[in-house]
Amino acid sequence: MLAAQAPEAETLRRPTDDSVRRLEELGLFRLMVPDRYGGLELDLDTFLEAGLALGEADASIAWVSTFYVEHNWMFCQFPENFQRVLYEGRSHVLAPAVIAPGGSAVRESGGYRLRGRWSWGTGVMHGSWVIVGALTEGESGPASLRFFALPIEDVGVEDVWFVDGLAGTGSNDIVVEDRLVPEEQTVGIFEMTAGAAPGAGIHEGPLYRTPMIPILLTAATTPLVGQARAVVDGFRQRLAERQRMFSSQTQAHNPAMQQRLASVTVQLQQVELLLRDVVSDVMERRDAASPRDRARWSSSFAHALHQTRQIIGEVALASGASAHFRDDPLQRAQRDANVAACHVAFDLDAQRELYGRLLLGLEPSGAIF
Q1: pLDDT digits (tens, 9 = 90+) for 252-263
Q2: What pLDDT score does 119 carry?
Q3: Could you tell me what percent of the chain has a pLDDT over 90?
Q4: How many CB atoms lie within 10 A of CB 311?
Q5: Averaged pLDDT, 12-36
Q6: Which residues contact 14 (CB under 8 A, 6 or more apart)?
Q7: Are the C-beta atoms of 59 and 166 separated by less than 8 Å?
Q8: Which residues on neighbouring strands pair with residue 132, listed in sequence order?
Q9: What's the predicted TM-score (pTM) here?
Q10: Are 226 and 271 contacting, i.e. CB atoms less than 8 angstroms apart?
């Protein structure tokens, strides 16, 4: 169903209403919500497999869906009173979350006066709440970066999502003109990235002591790796159907194509094994991970995403001219992978530099998330 609706979502520049509704009915967005709120309270290994499976259908709806799951985990890191109100009568919330500080927050009695614009609002088109990051005025150090949760009625959404890849995500801009956000609807960003936000003390499960960034990177990587699964399988089927030039045989009998198929299949297996290894390590170490561990995780996710992009590109190059018609799903997969690779978390040079410095015993060149 999701694969069949992918072309419509790309045309609409957002997920179809039916796809979001069906995934809600399946209970997907409850995956990381604590049992006390009616959630499934499942861990990163299940999250990984869900993201891969969804990605096989369509990277855009998988991208929105995995972030909806991760953003519910984020809500469960906010102060407990806010969590109880938020989840009263429901087991999940649909919300975008933007980490990059796109605005400013001035401390006032009872909360913060928030203003700003945030880009890349994945999930905003069906959202009922939003989470945005901002710098707070009058404070210094790590606590000056905070997340703010607001109901969708308190923000504006500007339609700017005219892109060549991941078009079906509808990741439009979020605008806050002037809102007072209560203290209990905020949480420190660095607390969350360290696995030490309020949720770590509220919920007993180890999931809520997990640093945020590997969860975010699982959400962002698995849709594209899942799509690469579909691309490689589609390549296998294509070889069985395409005729060789000036021959009665199909491309399945072409030794060069046989080698290419074997190569991308093994490369994809390597990517999936790397992801499972990283997720397993995250689940073992959680908030006890060292800066070097966390840098290794991020570098590994970035490597996996760029390797996935290369796999999809190799298949596109070997699939013949007919694969370049716009109605071929391979075109959408290639565009989606190209855009995903531009996510700041997948800056391969930066991730490798940070990890390399730590391997050499040097001080990090920037913040370690």
Answers
A1: 889 999 999 999
A2: 96
A3: 88
A4: 26
A5: 98
A6: 125, 126, 161, 168, 169, 170
A7: yes
A8: 98, 148
A9: 0.95
A10: no
